[in-house]
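Whiteboard transcription, Tuesday session. T.W. wrote the structure tokens on the left side:
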């Protein structure tokens, strides 16, 4: 098959790799707007389950990824100045640039052609081909071009985020809630390499307004965050990588393909950073599109219908969980009075999918502490 891929993020690269590894006769080219070594942001997080998908279908990529990872078992919720540890939450973390490098290397090994610093303005530029894959990210220009067909829904969430890094190492995946005079600021912090941590800061619109963050320069915003999280950073500075404030957009599309053009990854649907599942969702799309080819062969209309059939249920379920998690962070005011144990418990059970029995199984210490504070609790 002649396949052209717009966007060299995890979704496009992984799909290119799976197809070319399967059949070296495929003619596959990936066009990436940015230069090879460019990346935004810092690290990415994968749960154990997320990585098992990669291990099952591409053990050699899994191997290359694990060499570049750090793995820790612990989570921590810091509220009212107190840290509550949540046990048995294993997360694999790695630098986004390392993930991309691992994918570049695997793609090159099997003969995928990677074209960097090449922005595709219009899929028609790509000439005749069997399949065009638009994996061009959450703001997908390809999706916008055909928006009358795809009917995307762009749900811009109210909270504001800024994605910093730091050399202060947060071994536990830490959620830090700091309430100051100007309002509430939340940090999602985790070590992702031997030397660096991601430090994603989230504020609600009222805090953003009161603190004047909207009128501050990038450097002033960074120093505001350093002050708010001074106790956590312990004098270690935050690092910026074009870290300006943005609102997260939850993307859904009524239609997933148009002629021989298909959307995958963030172009198709986004999760939310608070559940750390965007890269997992993107790579699962690549697997599903590959599996659809294995079932239907090169009959493009059939394979695209199969892709939607096998992928839509899982994708919708995970996105719903991401939306619930997003809403939890957006409605924290009534919860700020909770004691640190009850607050951490509320966090753990926020999706509605974790029962008290499950908390007892996962983290008996937290369940016992919560039961002590809530003696009337029905623990049956
Ligand atoms: C603040 C923040 C934190 C996050 N944290 C995590 C996390 O911890 N764990 C996690 O799993 N996910 C996380 N994500 C989400 C994750 O980054 C994305 O879900 C994931 O990268 C999606 O992969 P993708 O390949 O679909 O898109 P992207 O990674 O966005 O890749 C799209 C690519 O397309 C290129 N492109 C765009 N337009 C064109 C064009 N016209 N021509 C050619 N190329 C083009 C872009 O340059 C880009 O390289 C986070 C996202 C944000 C915003």
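and on the right, the sequence the group agreed on:
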């Amino acid at each position: 098959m002649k396949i052209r891929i717009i966007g060299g993020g995890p979704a496009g690269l992984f799909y290119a790799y799976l197809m070319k590894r399967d059949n070296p006769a495929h003619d596959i080219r990936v066009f990436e707007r940015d230069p090879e070594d460019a990346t935004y942001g810092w690290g990415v997080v994968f749960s154990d389950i997320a990585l098992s998908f990669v291990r099952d279908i591409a053990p050699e990529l899994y191997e290359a990824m694990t060499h570049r990872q750090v793995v820790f078992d612990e989570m921590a919720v810091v509220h009212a100045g107190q840290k509550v540890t949540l046990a048995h939450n294993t997360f694999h973390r790695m630098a986004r640039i390392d993930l991309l490098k691992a994918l570049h290397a695997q793609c090159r090994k099997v003969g995928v052609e990677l074209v960097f610093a090449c922005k595709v303005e219009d899929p028609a530029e790509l000439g005749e081909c069997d399949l065009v894959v638009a994996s061009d990210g959450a703001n997908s220009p390809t999706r916008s071009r055909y928006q009358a067909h795809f009917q995307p829904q762009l749900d811009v969430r109210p909270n504001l985020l800024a994605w910093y890094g730091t050399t202060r190492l947060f071994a536990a995946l830490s959620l830090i809630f700091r309430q100051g005079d100007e309002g509430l600021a939340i940090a999602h912090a985790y070590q992702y390499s031997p030397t660096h941590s991601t430090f994603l800061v989230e504020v609600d619109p009222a805090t953003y307004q009161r603190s004047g963050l909207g009128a501050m320069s990038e450097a002033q915003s960074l120093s505001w965050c350093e002050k708010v999280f001074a106790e956590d950073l312990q004098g270690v500075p935050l690092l910026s990588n074009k870290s300006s404030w943005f609102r997260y957009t939850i993307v859904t599309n009524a239609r997933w393909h148009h002629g021989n053009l298909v959307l995958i990854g963030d172009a198709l649907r986004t999760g939310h950073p608070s559940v750390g599942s965007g890269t997992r969702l993107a790579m699962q799309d690549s697997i599903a599109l590959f599996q659809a080819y294995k079932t239907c062969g090169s009959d493009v209309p059939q394979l695209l219908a199969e892709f939607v059939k096998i992928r839509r249920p899982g994708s919708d379920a995970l996105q719903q969980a991401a939306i619930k998690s997003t809403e939890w962070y957006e409605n924290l005011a009534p919860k700020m009075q909770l004691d640190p144990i009850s607050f951490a418990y509320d966090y753990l059970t926020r999706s509605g999918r974790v029962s008290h029995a499950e908390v007892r199984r996962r983290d008996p210490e937290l369940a016992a502490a919560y039961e002590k504070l809530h003696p009337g609790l029905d623990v049956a």
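Someone added at the bottom: The chain has a mean pLDDT of 93.
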